[in-house]
Write a structure and sequence with these properties.
Two copies of one chain form a homodimer. By secondary structure, the first copy, chain A, is of the alpha/beta class. Chain A has five domains: about 100 residues, Beta-grasp domain (Ubiquitin-like (UB roll)); about 80 residues, Ubiquitin-like (UB roll) (Roll); about 150 residues, Nucleotidyltransferase, domain 5 (2-Layer Sandwich), CATH 3.30.420; about 150 residues, Nucleotidyltransferase, domain 5 (2-Layer Sandwich); about 100 residues, no CATH class. Chain A is about 25% helix and about 25% strand. In chain A, strands 10, 11, 12, 13, 14, 15 and 16 form a seven-stranded mixed β-sheet that branches. A six-stranded mixed β-sheet of chain A has the order 27-26-17-18-19-28, with helices on both faces. Chain A has a five-stranded mixed β-sheet with strand order 2-1-5-3-4. In chain A, helix 6 crosses helix 7, helix 10 crosses helix 15 and helix 15 packs across helix 16. At the A-B interface, helix 4, strand 7 and helix 5 of A face helix 4, strand 7 and helix 5 of B.
Chain lengths: ~625, ~625
């Protein structure tokens, strides 16, 4: 039996959130239960050192170690994932250890325009003016509704018990004028089969024709949601927030590891559904009471995210030969997995191609439309897990490459996500040997984000401060100096920085960036070669995903992340995953096309593809060992 | 806040079952919570007087009234539905007030033989020997299973999340040798549509090919269950019990009324599912662990029973124009409505034709097979609600007639169900002016069951003791005497009877029987005339249902319940409803045929059919006003 004495009261600063924690629980877990994010790239394994917190009062049970020096320990710093609750404590979570959701809270997707030629949603709403029953015709209510739907071309109908239960009351209260919603559901393994019609809801007819679908992009880092009016085809402004799972690891691998712990899977599912539910609450401000009229959600995420959200154990995704449990998803009830929608609302996950090419990529390809065009196209989503698709309307190949976390600020001494305080732009004046920083929201810099890292390294490379090997030319700039991790470049002195520390770029940071861009580039090369083509044959390069928005194309080519092609061939499509969900909601044929894309794609496991490793090794220079791939751009 | 003092401890005799009852709860409800049946034909409305109990000690809060005389009150008799708990009490439930389940506990359906020409269950089991995934083929688990099923001709597949979740583990634990169960599910409103395949279960392959379906007959009075081995086509012995709802009223109308009370519907659903669950426990003795391998239940009941079991409000069944919420049922999960089967197990209710011609009749017609034969056939199920079907392979008409409870012992002074102690046979010796009684189980008689009533009245009519008008010829037998309700016939003197009272037949009893048989007979006439035929055109009369088993055909013709036709035209098919469920489980085409039967049937609302009332009035004699309909049989 637990008694009051077994619980410690923890107060988290600066938010002053108080959490009762059982003795022995980690501070990370306690913070999480209190709704507070603490970075933990490694999923709480104690090996990333990102979850540093400061003990401002009371006690926790912790010791110094590999990721917590004696010196830091003496300064009352603790690793939240290793520190165990043992009594009342006040714990300060510094900015660097926080997932800053404020950026996302304000964010609204810029390019919202998604249109289809013909509005033909998979969810149909039929207004039925039924003949009320009498002695001459006392057909059962459900038969009456089904017959009227058949007259409107909706055959092959199914209904669930909950809907059937409420039907008699609704029909009588409305004088047998009903608005019936039917979802057309194709089978999982046969595109040609006629979809069956699921009667999702029977409601009294009214004058408001609006009904809605939800588009959900379930990203490893952030989650986006958008309402779509299926009567008008209008897509409303999207809203976003950090994926609550981020407290349990920043990349999919650490999430999968966490899911293997007792209750881990359940907890991760709860985190992401809570995030979605918070977004859904915000949508209520756009269209009050929309849930009553929202019948379906289309969700796209990478393979791991889909499994975690559905509560399906993702462990085999991580184990060779990387077999996901589910690629083509059955239609679910949203409420069944904890999404706060009406019981009738359905949820369809976009199909995945493989363990690391997920529904978000299929959705992005759908949104980009190149799968039905002639031009040879490279489609990429840059991130810790980078996805690459090459093809056109005749064929599609794809691969995932493990770029590592550099693009998202991981493995980088002052790396951070693209949030206020992140250095995202950089100009180097070779004459004065000084630089100009661009910082997000114009506040004192606290670190450097992925696109900032590319811009800094590209500019320093062009200035000759960084050489082909990614090393500093130590005599080319007075800002290059020796630091605790070897040579480093001083980006911002302590006095001008938010954290009160010098913000620097180290050679290790550059190495990590070179590894990341090399993994991507050798991926493109492998796919291009596999189909007997060359990089120059690419007529279009489509960049999807949050990272692409802030990407400086010239700088990305300079460091060898993007192929050296005329800039007009590049296209940024924003959150393609969310756009694809929107299209599927607006159009049944689009949803079928998504399933076609999934089936068309030939997946390459790069690590198993001959020649990939050689190509990768050749990328470990700036921009590349093979200079012919990167002719001078006229700097 | 309740305290211990607000609860009264009631002890029910002779079972000595103790129930804690809150003050104010009725004795009927308390007994029910204790698992004891007390007759309450009227559903606890206080208007049938069948729930008489004896207060042997303590107190209950009750008063004499219309259905409880001052004299009975003084003898400590109480109506269980009116008596409210007010303190500790000992309450004896006399035999006449009990639903005697012991008869059913022993019963095993005699005619178990049900066969189909081709074993083709709607639930298929496929043994899949899958190629385990490797680097060359890392298709998702579900895609792999679906592709292998497609190779076996099972396309258009759907799967639920629960099955998909467990699939990866099962595949790996079994070395990718899996037994996959697929249920083929046709839509509710289109017979021609291809059924979709629902992957119900994925289990490791083993050597045991047996898998099962359940047949369930949900009767107003009794519930029957039977296991069917779908691998061999073998139907196992059925088991039966009283429908637990019987404590809340004996006929469908009183159940519908009860369902309208607060919590009434929920309670009735719980009663019947508890009854089914008890039967399922007993089936475990036949095939231990069968639930693991039982994937579907086919259930047939009258329209009200189906709705109550599914928890759908039946109120409109009772209100003109008698529109049931559901006629063709969607496929349910058995567990969803409280049936104790595995989560994967499905449940299909037989479709109803109308509010009073239910799935049990459709199932019975299926079992009898006349819907595909040329002979003009009358199909009847005799009971409080009598159902009549007339037709052949080209057309089917049906009607329900409200016969009243006489056939089931209701409205009859010493009426009882066919259970031990019921007088079921009777011979009158005109020379000696005495009779011989047949009593079920050869115990002292306590009452007379429905078939016994027919036999007694027919025999007394032939002997001239009862005349055409259903009155006693008071001088024809010394056993006719004046009693408290007018003239009566002494069946068994108190000294020889179980209840210690004279068991008598009254003129009111005979009136009720004449009303009941007249309602049935005028029903046949109405349907026969509606299609331009005559009674003599009937080539076959099929009698289904529990009542038919003990029916003496000649006596039933003598009183005018059955048409006067050569005896060889009559056929008794037993529990046709249970047999039809068995057929549907064994054969998909049979299940489709059941749905065809439902669609083929033209339903007549007798009360709305011109001429029905005149015909009914003409039946209010023995055997009928029109003697030509009943030529002498050569008595």
């Amino acid at each position: 039996m637990s008694t009051e004495k077994d619980f410690a009261e923890l107060t988290f600063l600066p938010d002053r959130v108080t959490v009762k924690a059982p003795a022995g629980e980690t501070v990370l877990d306690a913070a999480n239960r209190g709704g507070l994010h603490i970075n933990a790239s490694c999923g709480g394994e104690g090996v990333c050192g990102r979850c540093m917190v400061e003990l401002r009062g009371g006690t926790v049970d912790a010791q110094p170690g590999l990721y917590l020096s004696e010196e830091d320990f003496a300064k009352n710093l603790r690793l939240a994932c290793r520190a165990k609750c043992s009594g009342p404590a006040e714990i300060f979570i510094p900015l660097e250890s926080r997932g800053d959701a404020s950026f996302f809270k304000k964010a609204v997707q810029a390019d919202e325009k998604v249109t289809v030629e013909t509005l033909a949603p998979t969810v149909k709403q039929a207004c039925l003016i039924l003949q009320p029953p009498d002695q001459a015709d006392n057909t059962a209510d459900l038969d009456r509704v089904a017959a009227a739907l058949s007259d409107q071309g909706l055959t092959d109908l199914y209904v669930d018990l909950a809907t059937a239960r409420t039907m008699p009351e609704v029909l009588r209260a409305s004088g047998f004028k009903a608005k019936v919603t039917v979802s057309l559901d194709p089978p999982i393994n046969d595109r040609a089969a006629k979809p069956f019609g699921r009667i999702v809801s029977v409601a009294p007819a009214d004058d408001d024709e609006s009904y809605y679908a939800l588009a959900l992009d379930i990203g490893t880092t952030s989650v986006w949601a958008r309402l779509i009016n299926l009567a008008t085809g209008e897509a409303l402004p999207s809203v976003a927030d950090l994926n609550g799972q981020i407290s349990f690891g920043e990349d999919v691998i650490s999430r999968i590891v966490y899911a293997g712990r007792p209750e881990g899977l359940k907890r991760l599912q709860l985190q992401v559904t809570n995030t979605v539910n918070k977004l859904l609450d915000r949508l209520d401000e756009q269209v009050p009471g929309y849930r009553q009229r929202t019948y379906i959600a289309y969700a796209a995420g990478n393979t791991t995210m889909s499994h975690l959200m559905a509560g399906v154990d993702p462990k085999n995704i991580r184990l060779a030969p990387y077999v996901p449990p589910i690629a083509a998803w059955p239609t679910l009830r949203a409420s069944q997995i904890g999404i706060n929608m009406e019981p009738f609302a359905l949820l369809k996950f976009f199909p995945s191609v493989s363990s690391y090419v997920g529904g978000d990529i299929v959705s992005g390809v759908l949104a980009s439309g190149f799968y039905e065009r002639e031009e040879l196209t490279l489609f990429i989503d840059v991130g810790t897990n980078g996805e690459i698709v090459i093809g056109n309307r005749d064929w599609l190949t794809c691969a995932a490459c493990s770029a590592g976390p550099a693009f998202e600020g991981g493995g980088v001494k002052f790396g951070m996500r693209a949030a206020p305080g992140a250095i995202d732009n950089f100009l180097y004046d070779r004459n004065l040997n000084k630089h100009y920083l661009g910082v997000m929201d114009n506040v004192p810099p606290s670190g450097i984000c992925g696109s900032g890292l590319i811009n800094v390294v590209a500019e320093l490379f062009r200035a000759g401060v960084v050489n082909k090997q990614g090393r500093f030319e130590t005599d080319r700039s007075p800002l290059v100096r020796e630091g605790e991790d070897g040579w480093e470049y001083l980006l911002s002195p302590a006095a001008e920085s938010a954290g009160g520390k010098d913000v620097v770029l180290t050679e290790i940071d550059i190495e990590n960036l070179i590894r990341a861009k090399g993994a991507m580039f050798s991926g493109y090369q492998t796919l291009v070669e596999a189909v007997g083509l060359e990089m120059g044959d690419l007529q279009r390069v489509i960049i999807a995903g949050g990272f692409g928005k802030s990407l400086n194309l010239e700088n990305a080519i300079t460091i060898g992340l993007l192929p050296s092609l005329p800039l007009e061939r590049f296209l940024y499509i924003g959150n393609g995953s969310l756009s694809g969900c929107t299209l599927a909601a607006l159009s049944g044929p689009m949803w079928l096309a998504a399933n076609d894309i999934k089936r068309m794609m030939t997946n390459f496991e790069l690590s198993e593809t001959p020649g990939y490793m050689d190509k990768y090794m050749a990328t470990q220079f700036l921009p590349h060992t093979d200079a012919s791939l990167f002719p001078p751009m006229g700097d």
